[in-house]
Amino acid sequence: MDREEYVEAVLRAVESIPEGSVATYGDIAEYVGQGGPRQVGAIMREYGGGVPWWRVIRASGVPADEVGDEQLHRLRSDGVRITNGRVNLRDARWDPQD
DNA sequence: CAACTGACGGCCT
DNA sequence: GAGGCCGCCAGTT
């Protein structure tokens, strides 16, 4: 799998996160089956426009620093419960079989 | 080729 | 729960 295919695979994975749920960078990497969380983050930074990037957060439930406020706002309008600037992953975490 | 970098994560205080 | 530390891994210097 070359880099372009990898980028496409990551973007498709993000697109498949349904409204109302979230995935971690690590979740996406695992789902794609290649690379790691940092690769996913790098791809979101570069190619994230065009996909629901706000549904990808850190494993701690906190969004990436740069986009944090907008991300939380978008998630809330998705219907995701936010408590103290954090997403409750136990509720909202993406399950690929959906 | 070595060093640095970072939309990260898990483990240990 | 919050930091600090270190591992990870691909891209850039």
UniProtKB/TrEMBL annotation:
Signal sequence, renumbered to the chain: none
The Methylated-DNA-[protein]-cysteine S-methyltransferase DNA binding domain, residue ranges: 8-66
GO molecular function: catalytic activity
GO biological process, one term: DNA repair
InterPro entries assigned to the protein according to its UniProt record, in alphabetical order: ATL_DNA_repair (IPR052520), MethylDNA_cys_MeTrfase_DNA-bd (IPR014048), MethylDNA_cys_MeTrfase_DNAb (IPR036217), WH-like_DNA-bd_sf (IPR036388)
Coiled-coil region(s): none
Key words of the record: DNA damage
PANTHER family recorded: 6-O-METHYLGUANINE DNA METHYLTRANSFERASE, ALKYLTRANSFERASE-LIKE PROTEIN 1
Protein name, as recorded: Alkylated DNA nucleotide flippase Atl1
Organism the protein comes from: Kribbella rubisoli
